[in-house]
Amino acid sequence: MVIKVLLVDDEPLVRAGLRVVLEAQPDIEVVGEAADGAAVVPLVRSLRPDVVAMDVRMPLMDGIEATSAVLRTVAAPPKILVVTTFENDEYVYGALRAGADGFLLKRARPAEIVHAVRLVAEGDSLLFPAAVRELAAAYGRERGGARAREALARAGLTEREEDVLRLMARGLSNAEIAARLIVGTETVKSHVSAILAKLGARDRTQAVIAAYESGFVAPA
């Protein structure tokens, strides 16, 4: 399967660099570019990308607003990969909370860029779990608290679903979780789907953030 990617960044050199790196891969195609988040929704509707590589800071509409707009207005929205200069950035955490599936540093090596796009497209593992943990430690406490704890309690996760959520937070893939719990991969997929549904999470990234913000999983 060819992964279709939309590039969104106000710096032409960044877009050009990402295009060169991604289009060198036989399974990735860059289908379009935009210089601001305000152009994302129409392009997503017309181009139907699988992944949007989105700058988090842009002049008219930033990556947080653009992510929210895509998820709010587009049916079957694409995966969103936030592209940022600084990893320990409250904007990045805001984008993840808004529904972005992961983030990528602009200084990342070509192999890391390609890996990030593929991993986000597949959606069965958490991208850069240690960095997500650090963001949760820095910003999650003020965003979470009692409301997040109550939401997790209302979700009514089973004991096995709690085990799976803990392993998701550590960045394990479905196959790795299956091996750890000595169950089949399809069983893990069913547990993950149930966790997302109960938490009202778009994907595993949002589920893990909910786990951190509620204190179910400790960031440290």
TrEMBL record:
Gene3D superfamilies: 3.40.50.2300. Signal peptide: none annotated. The keyword DNA-binding applies. Residues 4-121 form the Response regulatory domain. Keywords: DNA-binding, Phosphoprotein, Transcription, Transcription regulation. The modification 4-aspartylphosphate is found at D55. Residues 150-215 form the HTH luxR-type domain. One of its GO terms (biological process) is regulation of DNA-templated transcription. It comes from the Bacteria. One of its GO terms (molecular function) is DNA binding. The keyword Ribonucleoprotein does not apply. PANTHER family: TRANSCRIPTIONAL REGULATORY PROTEIN NARL-RELATED (PTHR43214:SF24), TWO-COMPONENT RESPONSE REGULATOR (PTHR43214). This is DNA-binding response regulator.
